[in-house]
Amino acid sequence: MRFYIASMMLFISMVGYADVIAVTTSESRISAVRIESKYALVSFSNRSESECGQGRAYLDLDNEYHKVAYSTVLAAYMAGKEVSIRIYDDSALVFGACKIYDVYISG
Asked: What is the CA radius of gyration of the chain?
């Protein structure tokens, strides 16, 4: 339940910043999580039509909301849960990945 609330807080706090697109389907799984400097890189099992979301997205761990999203990502990864991930389509790329907008855990 806490993860759902945290995800909703992340979603509500970031509404209206930029174009947001889905880069996964509801049947995707997180395939890897990697920390590189201050960024958490999240790899997922399918690829999007967007050039921005080609199987990977990032979270900026200097951002408090992204720290909450990171814990949500880790929980989904460890539990093998299905997720939906949306990204900012026009965000700056970090290691070829776009910034995560929100993460929804299903199943």
From this structure: 12
Predicted model pTM: 0.73
Helices in the chain by DSSP H: which ranges?
Answer: 2-13, 64-79
Calculate helix-pair angle for 2-13, 64-79, nearest 10 degrees.
Answer: 140
CB count, 10 Å around CB of 104?
Answer: 19
User: Closest Cα partner for 69 from 2, 1, 5, 7?
Assistant: 7
Count other Cβ atoms within 10 Å, centred on residue 32.
12
Q: Which of 86, 79, 73 is nearest to 15 (CA)?
A: 86
Q: How far apart are CA 35 and CA 100, in angstroms?
A: 15
Return all residues near 90 (Cβ < 8 A) that are at least 6 apart: 18, 19
The two structure tokens encoding residue 9: 């807080």
Is the Cα dihedral 8, 12, 13, 18 positive or negative?
A: positive
Each residue's pLDDT tens digit, 77-92: 999 988 888 888 777 8
Q: φ and ψ at 60, to 5 degrees?
A: -90, 110
